[in-house]
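Sequence, please.
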């Protein structure tokens, strides 16, 4: 439900803004600020008035903020939807990625891959998807590789244990 409402606000903001990329950057910073427990508590508190919540967000933007964004924040405040800023930022970021055909993905493995191997993997993914994918690495206890690009709905998993099991099954079937 939250995503549907956020999509409507994101679509409205995109239709009136000339520079949606800079607004997305500001919304990403606001999202990080809202992730703070104190700020989150203040935004969801019934004790704090909607005007105070709006003033709090607007003061974080500063005096030189884009008027479109300021008006957008005021509308969110009037409708008691300031807590949707992270969801709206997520929708706008996804739209910008789709528009530029550039996505971010995560590579999880036990060992860190070198830059050369990582760029080969990115090139292979580009060939397969037709999109430019920038991978970031995370260390896990997974004995193999897992690549996931959430915005494209791609998840590829190469596990040594799984290959071993499939090889054993293949040998059993051939006997």
């Amino acid at each position: 439900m939250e995503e549907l409402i956020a999509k409507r606000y994101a679509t409205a903001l995109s239709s009136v803004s000339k520079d949606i990329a800079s607004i997305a950057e500001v919304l990403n910073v606001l999202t990080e600020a809202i992730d703070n427990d104190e700020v989150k508590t203040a935004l969801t508190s019934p004790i704090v008035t909607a005007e105070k919540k709006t003033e709090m967000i607007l003061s974080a933007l500063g005096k030189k903020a884009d008027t479109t964004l300021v008006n957008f924040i005021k509308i969110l405040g009037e409708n008691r939807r300031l807590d949707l800023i992270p969801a709206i930022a997520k929708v706008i970021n996804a739209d910008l990625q789709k528009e530029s055909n550039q996505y971010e993905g995560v590579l999880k493995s036990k060992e860190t891959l070198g830059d050369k191997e990582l760029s080969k993997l990115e090139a292979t993914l580009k060939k397969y998807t037709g999109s430019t994918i920038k991978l970031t690495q995370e260390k896990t206890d997974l004995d193999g590789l897992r690549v996931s690009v959430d915005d494209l709905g791609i998840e590829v998993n190469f596990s040594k244990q799984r290959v071993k099991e499939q090889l054993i099954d293949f040998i059993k079937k051939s006997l």
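Helices lie at 2-16, 20-34, 37-44, 50-61, 67-78, 85-100, 115-129, 160-174.
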